[in-house]
Design brief:
The chain is α/β, with parallel strands linked by helices and 423 residues long. The protein is built from 13 helices and 22 strands. The strands form four sheets. It has a seven-stranded mixed sheet. The protein has a seven-stranded mixed sheet with strand order 9-10-11-12-13-20-21, covered by helices on one side. The radius of gyration is 21 Å and the shape is globular. The structure holds zinc ion (2 copies). The site of one zinc ion (ZN) has 6 residues, from helix 1.
Length: 423
């Protein structure tokens, strides 16, 4: 470590980009926060790893289960780092499920997976569930507390007390339908906040209305690619609120299974979420997609919801292949679309000869500019350093600039993957 510095932060992934979130920290202890994948579609690979840097983590802190934060952990195990991975209970269960999915995605495309299936089982033994709001000591010099972050069931803000106090906000959201709002009664010297939406303000009510209007504008079938947990349920909830929607709703089996799975974690959900989930499960308007009847469902005009979100694989890609030349059908992309994926290439107009209409319509699942301002006012007003992560450029830099205008006395930066920061 540099003389005079208290701590070193190495941006292994997810800085100036979205995906492969990973931060390596050296202070009194050495540890990682997250170790995810970045979706790409190159020859023979579907995801990029966090940077290869000489690391010696004593433990890992995992903010939540999404693959961009968790899915390379089995590789870490394979590299010989058999260290405890602390996370909440839902994160533990979902991480194992999503790492297996990642492995299967490679298999389904006849590609060599980046790790062995046994490494996922090894990882399972290393995942240690910790409750929200209870401080624990992963090593003698460091205390850690997980707090709700409002983004996905079990998602956490990781609060670290080492040489300095660090609040890593991971993926955070306010006003989520299923998850309690982030915990903000904390103060940190270093803050890592989410730059997914750059300097934009996202009004979730308005976004839901726009989303519905887009669905209603379709002439025949609507395909909505999405993650099967989190967004899958949010989209169903938005749609069944609209009584006048005159098309049947079909979801991938995994969306239905994960709706049930969320009910296993009732104590992690926000007030009212259990009722909403039960309503989804009981609604006669929501049925499961039977692949054998896919062509009939498309011909009759249906709303089809399922993974994956970027049209890389699974049921969404199958449906896309059927409707891609049908001008009366509609694909509604939402969420982040990584460069190189089919979803992104459609949005960028790179694919010629496709007749299906493609529209991007976002539903809010991350903090926007106003949320980040609120986080800074409440938790980081005296911070020595604030870093933006989880934002593709120029969004990360735009957010840093917008926040600097509001908080000119704070050191707010948008570093890039590969940067090393001494504090
Ligand atoms: Zn996430
Ligand atoms: Zn993420």
């Amino acid at each position: 470590m540099k003389a005079g510095a208290d701590m070193k932060l190495v941006c292994l992934g997810g800085f100036g980009e979205q995906g492969r979130s990973s931060l390596y920290v050296e202070g009194r202890s050495r540890f990682l926060v997250d170790y995810g994948i970045k979706k790409v579609e190159h020859e023979g690979t579907l995801g990029e790893l966090p940077l290869n840097h000489s690391i010696e983590p004593e433990f890992v802190l995992l903010t939540h289960a999404h693959q961009d934060h968790s899915a390379m952990l089995p590789l870490l195990v394979e590299k010989g780092f058999r260290v405890p991975v602390y996370c909440t209970l839902p994160t533990k269960e979902l991480t194992i499920q999503l790492c297996r999915n990642w492995y299967e995605t490679y298999r389904s495309k006849n590609l060599e997976p980046p790790y062995k299936l046994e490494s996922v089982e090894e990882l399972e033994k290393l995942l240690i569930p910790v409750p929200y709001n209870e401080t624990f000591q992963p090593s003698s010099g460091t205390r850690v507390t997980f707090y709700p972050s409002g983004h996905l069931v079990g998602s956490a803000i990781v609060y670290i007390e080492d040489e300095l106090t660090i609040a890593h906000f991971g993926d955070t959201n306010f006003g989520d339908r299923f998850n309690p709002d982030p915990f903000l009664d904390l103060e940190a010297e270093v803050g890592i906040i989410n730059g997914s939406y750059g300097g934009a303000v996202m009004n979730s009510q308005q976004l839901r209305k726009n989303f519905l209007a887009t669905v209603q504008s379709s002439q025949r079938t609507v395909l909505i690619p999405c993650a099967s947990i989190g967004r899958g349920q949010e989209i169903c909830a938005v749609l069944i609120e609209q009584e006048t929607l005159n098309k049947p709703i079909y979801v991938a089996k995994s969306v239905l299974e994960n709706t049930k799975k969320l009910l296993d974690f009732k104590e992690f959900l926000r007030f009212g979420a259990v009722d909403t989930l039960n309503r989804l499960l009981k609604s006669p308007r929501i049925k499961v997609i039977e692949e054998a009847h896919l062509h009939d469902l498309i011909a009759q005009g249906s709303i089809l919801i399922g993974p994956d979100a970027m049209l890389s694989s699974q049921i969404a890609l199958k449906i896309f292949d059927v409707i891609k030349n049908c001008a009366q059908d509609l694909v509604i992309l939402n969420g982040y679309q990584a460069p190189g994926t089919l979803g992104r290439r459609l949005l960028d107009g790179e694919l010629k000869g496709i007749k299906v209409r493609v529209v991007y319509s976002e539903l809010k699942i991350h903090t926007d500019l106003e949320d980040n301002e609120r986080i800074i006012e409440r938790c980081l007003s005296k911070a020595r350093l604030i870093l933006i992560h989880h934002g593709e450029e120029p969004k990360a830099t735009n957010l840093a600039k917008a926040l600097k205008r509001k908080f000119p006395n704070l050191d707010i930066r948008a570093p890039h993957t590969g940067d090393e920061i001494h504090i």
